[in-house]
Amino acid sequence: xxxxxxxxxxxxxxxxxxxxxxxxxxxxxxxxxxxxxxxxxxxxxxxxxxxxxxxxxxxxxxxxxxxxxxxxxxxxxxxxxxxxxxxxxxxxxxxxxxxxxxxxxxxxxxxxxxxxxxxxxxxxxxxxxxxxxxxxxxxxxxxxxxxxxxxxxxxxxxxxxxxxxxxxxxxxxxxxxxxxxxxxxxxxxxxxxxxxxxxxxxxxxxxxxxxxxxxxxxxxxxxxxxxxxxxxxxxxxxxxxxxxxxxxxxxxxxxxxxxxxxxxxxxxxxxxxxxxxxxxxxxxxxxxxxxxxxxxxxxxxxxxxxxxxxxxxxxxxxxxxxxxxxxxxxxxxxxxxxxxxxxxxxxxxxxxxxx
Length: 355
Fold this sequence. Notes:
This protein is mainly β and 355 residues long. It has two helices and 30 strands.
């Protein structure tokens, strides 16, 4: 495991990170946004929004989080992509946060870290992919989508060959770089937005795409060909709307997809599927995020806007907890890769019309 970078002096942080652009608050009550953390598997939660600056310690309790990611080589390095305040990161397990220079404003929808080099980070912001090779000090544009209405929805690094990077779009395009973002080529064009994309944790030739109204797709050859699971999933109403995909890192070929129907699981790489029984009837709950314990695949977490659901028996039974952030909706959840008692929850502002 690579060592955590040395702590930089507060004045240097201010100079390097462009802190003047983000919404920095004091300790005003009611600012319940940002990131929450539990050290007891969800029994109790604590808001983690400390943001040191040259002017003192502020808070990021106003921000809305869209995505969370853990550095594969350092479980204390956490990234938060926000709805309007760019990319935030921490090297101390969310005790203090910093803002990524050049990505301190705007929307960040996806973040991925090179598992072999913690200083190489890719972030998707609207119609662009950015890359840093110096641990967030600077970011350069790696890809620009010329269609202004098309956003990058996901970016992922191939863990086997880290020069290979994938980017998915809201128009259904999957593109690939084989030189760490220097150049790109098309892989496949789906007819619906790609909501989530994943490289299989056991075999990087296995790729998964969760699409809007076009179902769930799998490639077994690095994207050269694709199989759609519409036929085998047709018994599950509304399963063509797929929002997320999560892989069990303890059991090969075990994948859970989050659909409008609910949670559906395969134990054999997609040949057969079964629904995971939820406390809510099928198609009646909007699931906003999912996470599996990377060391125990039967431990599943998922969220709706107001509730955190936890199962320790593969979905046979569930424990529920209210989202700890008042007047905020759960938007992202991740489990610490080394200490499974530690979980991070990102929350976002609730729209006036609802989540």
